[in-house]
Amino acid sequence: xxxxxxxxxxxxxxxxxxxxxxxxxxxxxxxxxxxxxxxxxxxxxxxxxxxxxxxxxxxxxxxxxxxxxxxxxxxxxxxxxxxxxxxxxxxxxxxxxxxxxxxxxxxxxxxxxxxxxxxxxxxxxxxxxxxxxxxxxxxxxxxxxxxxxxxxxxxxxxxxxxxxxxxxxxxxxxxxxxxxxxxxxxxxxxxxxxxxxxxxxxxxxxxxxxxxxxxxxxxxxxxxxxxxxxxxxxxxxxxxxxxxxxxxxxxxxxxxxxxxxxxxx
Length: 265
Prior knowledge:
Elements (H helix, E strand, L loop, with lengths): L9 H7 L1 H4 L6 H19 L5 H26 L5 E6 L1 H13 L10 E6 L15 H29 L3 H17 L10 H10 L4 H8 L1 H17 L5 H27 L1
Antiparallel strand pairs: 1-2
Helix pairs in contact: 1-3, 3-4, 3-5, 4-6, 4-7, 6-7, 6-9, 6-10, 9-10, 10-11
């Protein structure tokens, strides 16, 4: 008599692989929600060039890049004796899916969830960072866009060596969008208290919002570096684009700090 296999469920799949991900701090709920995000963004990324191979490659790229982006928050949060929790936003994911499909992947919004920063204690005496305030939260969130930028630059360097390989092109495109969209300061300012809960349930908090409202000078530098390095990567070498981006971002940061200081005094 044949033994019936149990019905498929995302919860069972997430729990099956939870022991493998405990080292990076992902629990079964986060794995399940990252799989949801991977499927949706994989379809979006491959929508401009439909095909089974294209979908598999796009899904692999999304899973690798998106998971690394959010795991980097967890690694960096440990420095502040904190931890992050990935939260999938299915309402916004539906909007992202529709925009991606109808634009045929010309517009990709790869933020379908957010990272909530938590700490066991509000005050931690004896620590390098005894308080987990807005500035510390901004520094934690800054690591994600940086990881995506360097993945995009790495992919662009490999494209220069191996040509327009489907895997490398998708890796470059997805991380460019992920780095750029992550820097948008969305959902920290609401038009009124009446819409606050409604908007919070629809739109996840973008990393750029937490960086901007936590540390404006850090936001100015990081925003400048992200967009300048990505804008130059198609015209100069990777190392040159990084160096120019750092120099210009520093000059912009210095000018911002000078004007900000003048406005205070």
